[in-house]
Predict the structure of Rrf2 family transcriptional regulator.
Amino acid sequence: MKISTKGRYALRLMYDLAMHHTGEWIALKDISRRQGISVKYLEQIVRQLSVCGYLKSLRGPHGGYQLAKDPREYTIYEILQITEGSLHPVACMDDKTNQCERYHLCPTIEVWEGLGKVVQEYLSGITLEDIVERAKRKGGNDFVI
């Protein structure tokens, strides 16, 4: 499984908003500058995250974006699900009930189900707040000028 650029950038966007979570609105151009991601790309990502209720937005000259919830309420798994879609290791696991005609005969399905469970549990155990705390311990990776 590979996480796409969109998924990685979504995490960086959410990290940036969590790192600067002061109650003020944060402009995309500021996030763009700090994270080295184009505003156009960020616009696509914030649209997805806003529709899902993860971000609040305010239009206008003093507008921008904010997290809709506290950073500890967002898991990495949830954010990646929005931008990546399924995080399952094989396509046959994408449906709630596996539709594969070979499901009951498949000698490897338990491997894929186990891997999917490990990935979900691991990424669900990490919050945005965890990422912010790790970054602060490392020195921030925050390039505010």
About this structure: The first strand starts at residue 55 and ends at 58. The mean pLDDT is 90.
